[in-house]
Structure formats: C-alpha cells, structure tokens
Amino acid sequence: MELGIDLGTANTVVSDVRRGIVFDEPTVMLLRRGGSRRDRVLAVGQEAADLLGRTPSRFVAVRPLQDGVVTDLETARVYLRSVLRKAGRRVWAPVRAVIGVPVGSTALEHRALLEAADEAGLRPVTTLDEAVAGAVGCGLDPLERRVHMVVDVGGGTAEAVAFCYGGVLASRTSKLGGDEMTVAVARYLREQHQLFVGEHEAESLKIRSGSDGSGPLVLQGRDAATGRPRLATVQAAEVADAVRPIVDEIVRTLSASLDDLPPQAIADVMAEGVLVFGGSSLVSGFPQELERTLGLPVKLAEQPLTCVAEGAARALRNRPLLAAYGRG
C-alpha cells in the first residue's frame, strides 16, 4: 500500500497511488475517558465531527495536530492508526507513505511526526513540504529550471514558498489560518446578529460565503437574548468583512517572501502567476486580496482541498523529487 497523506489541522486527506482519494474527513477524534485505563476511540473524522457538542461530559473531542504539527505523540499515533484503518489498510500489509509537513516545522516537530507515523505502522515514511506536494498535485514540476511560487492556506498556518530546480528559494509562514477566520466569523455573528453558533456552523458559513456567490446565507444558532433557536440571514459580504483583518495579516506576512527573490525569479513568477490552494483559500475575497498585495497574478488550484495528498502520492513514484525535497 502506497499513500500520500495531508495531515491538516482542519482536515486529513489520504490519497492511494492506485485508488486515488481514500479518506477526506475532519482531523478530529472522539474519545471516551477511561480513568486509570486507556482512553477508548469512539469515532474518527466526520463521525466525530458530527458528534461535537452532542455528547456527555465523559466524551472528549481532540485534535491530534495544531498548526499542522503533532502536539501529543500518543494521540497522533492512535489517530493515524484509525485513519489507516478507515482508508482500507489490512493489518498485515506494509504501508509506504509520504506525509506533507509545513515548510516552517522545526526538527523536533518533524521528529515527533515521524515517530508517531512509525508507531502507527507507516514504514518507510518520507516527509515532503506541503507547498511542494501541493504544487506536484497541481501538475507543476519543482525540479524545473524556472521558479514556481505557491501559497498554501490551511486551518492552522499559511505559507508562501518559492522553489526551483530542487530547492526552496524563499518562504514565509503565518501562524494565522482558517481557524482564526472561523473564530472571527463566530464573533461577528455574536456581536452584529446577537446569535451564538458553534464552530461547525461558523466554519460552514465561512466556506459557503466563498462558494455560493454573493447572495444571502441562512444559518441557525441560539439567540443571545432569549437562548432559543433562531434562524438568521447573513450576506456573503458580511462574512468577507468579518475575516478581512485575518486575511490582511496573512497576506502581509506572506508577501514578504518576495523580498528574498532575485529579479529573474520575480520574472518567472510574473509570467506564470502564484498558485494558491488549501481549504482557506476558498474564503471569499482571499485570492483577490493576495493578488492585489503581491502585484502578481494569482490562480486558484482546481482541487485546492486534495492537491497536497495527491501530490504526496505522486511523489512516491518520483525518486529524484524525494531526493531533492524529501526528509526522512
């Protein structure tokens, strides 16, 4: 079994070299606390996300990753093992994998991920910068003798990376991402519409605002005054205004990557454009704001949610690429 894995803060995507996408669900796991005994896994992925806010106090939802890196080794190991099971792995079958990692991850964070993957049964494991994997998934060749620039906007972090001929020329990482946008949407609804909503509802509204055009959006929440359920109508432009401070800060941070590029590299990027992907790249107005600040053409990937996993899977059959960019 050969897998490309995108372990995102918000979503996990697994692509099989032969079968394509075999897992694409939220990065969340529901546990039942066992006291002196081990915690028991009740649900993983979408099943766990559907139960958020609906379970007794002895059940707890955990996110195995924060800002794209492992925060708890045991939780990450259990989560990876559960994901592999849902992806169709047979217990006896060896699994070779490439896992996407943030370009700004530290050596300690990288080692923790490799250890968790090894204990989950992934052997051998190679890691690949998510920006490079996403570029490969979109059909770019990072070994070409021309500069490519991509922007990956995930739930926990956002990164801008320029690479050429087997090496990274420049990169910038913002510790803000889609999670902060979701919080901003929930805060806006509370302050401007007097409506309390959960994380899932705020996330859904944020995504719909970018995909459903500029029309009105309807959502349900709890009225701040009466405590009773209430429907509210929100314009897509309101959502864009709510997340704009986060978007502006992300774009400002990422645009600094241009300062590190030589003139010829800028010419390459101007000719080709900047490729943007990741779940939060779909937020209303993000590509346009990025283009305005960078002063360069920006293109949204055709498959912005799955291209990192698909590129990681393709990299398994590309030894020169893994030799140049991979870490193991």
Explain what the structure shows.
The structure is a single chain. This protein is an alpha+beta fold and 328 residues long. The protein folds into 3 domains: 2-27 and 63-133 and 308-325, 2-Layer Sandwich (Nucleotidyltransferase, domain 5); 140-176 and 245-302, 2-Layer Sandwich (Nucleotidyltransferase, domain 5), CATH 3.30.420.40; 178-243, Alpha-Beta Complex (Actin, Chain A, domain 4), CATH 3.90.640.10. Helix content is 38%, strand content 29%. The protein is built from 11 helices and 18 strands. The chain has helices at 46-50, 73-86, 107-119, 130-137, 178-192, 199-211, 236-255, 263-272, 286-294, 307-315, 319-325; strands at 2-7, 11-16, 20-26, 29-32, 40-44, 59-62, 65-66, 69-70, 95-101, 122-129, 148-153, 158-164, 167-174, 195-196, 216-223, 229-235, 274-277, 298-300. The strands form 5 sheets. The chain has a 5-stranded mixed beta sheet, sandwiched between helices. It has a 5-stranded mixed beta sheet with strand order 13-12-11-17-18, with helices on both faces. Helix 2 crosses helix 3 (107-119). The chain is flat.
Question: How do you describe this structure in short?
Answer:
This protein has 328 residues and is α+β, with helices and mostly antiparallel strands. It has helices spanning 46-50, 73-86, 107-119, 130-137, 178-192, 199-211, 236-255, 263-272, 286-294, 307-315, 319-325, and strands spanning 2-7, 11-16, 20-26, 29-32, 40-44, 59-62, 65-66, 69-70, 95-101, 122-129, 148-153, 158-164, 167-174, 195-196, 216-223, 229-235, 274-277, 298-300. The protein has 3 domains: 2-27 and 63-133 and 308-325, ATPase, nucleotide binding domain (Nucleotidyltransferase, domain 5); 140-176 and 245-302, 2-Layer Sandwich (Nucleotidyltransferase, domain 5); 178-243, ATPase, substrate binding domain, subdomain 4 (Actin, Chain A, domain 4), CATH 3.90.640.10.
